[in-house]
Write a structure and sequence with these properties.
4-stranded antiparallel beta sheet; about 400 residues; 23 strands; F-box_dom; mainly beta
């Protein structure tokens, strides 16, 4: 007598295709991605449906709000024959050789051979400002979207003047800094004339015109250090002078004054002067100053009375080997090469690579492996995508599907 076989269980239904999920479900998944631009870009390159989801303005507002409206660090611009971009990767330091050799800037065509000789002057809130080799033109670059705006220098400016400039968000703009590229912007242009005058011009993207700042009192006669970027703290722009001074300019009141630095920087020793920087504590309550000397990092805070600097107050002195993993590295090979005014992070070059040091917590993180000497870097931060932006979809997007699937652990 044959035994009756028990019925086999029905096979499980095939898994639902990821692409068939409703857009509101996709949005709930994508909004939880880490904020590094590679994540949203990989998703956007997966399909036109995914692109529509992550470029939708309500989604972007949610995404920015979820991450505190603070875009992540994408990488660094630095000046070489053609300005270079060296990316950082989320959670790890970048490889040294390949990234240094031929790393393109984010966005197709952001930096091109025609940009040879242009100098990066400023990087702030998803825009980069460059100056032409003849010093008569400026370029405001949106690297992620590949947009360029060329601006002629102010009429009364002469190339022989010492000069630099900085791109800013228009004071009072409603857009948060995570989406600054969708708002108006300005450029602050400062120069030191051949008759020892400090001249400042303001450019507005809304009017497309320059405005010369008229000072009620005689402007300070301290030439600026054009090789060092400006630091913005609130409505005040700070430039380092070639002397042991800092020039402070209020964007709203148009007041310009000098602040002496808190340490003797040996006026003729440029290496000593360049190893210091104005810094901005995250609480926005004061101005700071950091200086690296021998084995130590020194930090000061400015005491203001009625908006006027009165004195520097020492905050702390910390040995560098307690902040960075510098075993076997000579301390004198630590250099200040940049600063993030939004996060109060100073960037330090060492023989081991580039580190970011948060000055409120004194926590450090390695951002780049060693990739040669760097004098000055300009940190670039962005969420990558804004509504209506061109994300440069390639002819074939199928090769990108495994990339973004790996981000979603699918």
């Amino acid at each position: 007598m044959s035994r009756r076989r028990s019925p086999q269980p029905a096979p499980p239904p095939p898994p639902q295709s990821f692409a068939s999920l409703p857009e509101n479900v996709l949005a709930e998944i994508f909004v939880n991605l880490p904020p590094h631009p590679a994540n949203l870009r990989s998703v956007a390159l997966g399909s036109h449906q995914f692109r529509d989801v992550v470029t939708n303005r309500p989604f972007l507002r949610r995404f920015h709000a979820r991450h505190g409206d603070a875009p992540p660090l994408v990488g660094f611009f630095l000046n070489e024959n053609i300005p270079r971009f060296i990316p950082t990767r989320s959670g790890e330091a970048t490889p040294s050789a390949s990234d240094r050799a031929a790393a393109p800037a984010p966005g197709a065509g952001a930096l091109e051979p025609r940009d040879a000789g242009w100098l990066v002057l400023s990087s702030r809130h998803a825009r980069v400002l460059l100056q032409s080799p003849d010093r008569l033109r400026l370029l405001v670059l949106d690297p992620m979207a590949g947009r360029r705006l060329y601006i002629d220098a102010p009429l009364r400016y002469r190339p022989k003047y010492q000069s630099t400039a900085s791109v800013i968000c228009v004071p009072g703009a409603d857009a948060g800094h995570g989406d600054c590229r969708s708002s108006a912007f300005g450029v602050v242009f400062v120069c030191f004339s051949n008759i020892f005058q400090t001249l400042i011009y303001l450019y507005s993207s809304e009017t497309g015109k320059w405005e010369k700042v008229e000072f009620q009192d005689m402007a300070p006669r301290a030439p600026i250090d054009v090789m060092r970027p400006c630091v913005q703290v609130g409505d005040v722009m700070y430039w380092h002078s070639v002397f042991t001074l800092v020039l402070a300019f209020n964007i709203n009141t148009h007041q310009l004054h000098e602040i002496p630095v808190p340490v003797d920087l040996n006026g003729d020793d440029y290496v000593a002067r360049s190893n210091s920087n104005v810094v901005a504590p995250k609480d926005g309550s004061s101005l700071g100053f950091v200086y690296i000397s021998l084995h130590n990092l020194q930090l000061w805070a400015s005491n203001f009375v009625s908006g006027v600097h009165v004195e520097w107050i020492p905050q702390r002195t910390v040995r560098l080997d307690t902040l960075l993993p510098l075993s076997g590295v000579r301390m004198r090979h630590v250099r200040v090469i940049g600063f993030d005014e939004d996060e109060n992070v100073v960037y330090l070059w060492t023989k081991l690579g580039v580190f970011g040091l948060q000055l409120d917590t004194m926590q450090s993180k390695k951002l780049l492996n060693y990739c040669g000497w760097m004098y000055r870097v300009y940190p670039y931060k962005s969420f990558f995508i804004t509504a209506g932006s061109d994300i440069f979809l390639p002819r074939s997007i199928s090769s990108y599907i495994p990339c973004f699937m790996s981000f979603l652990n699918i």
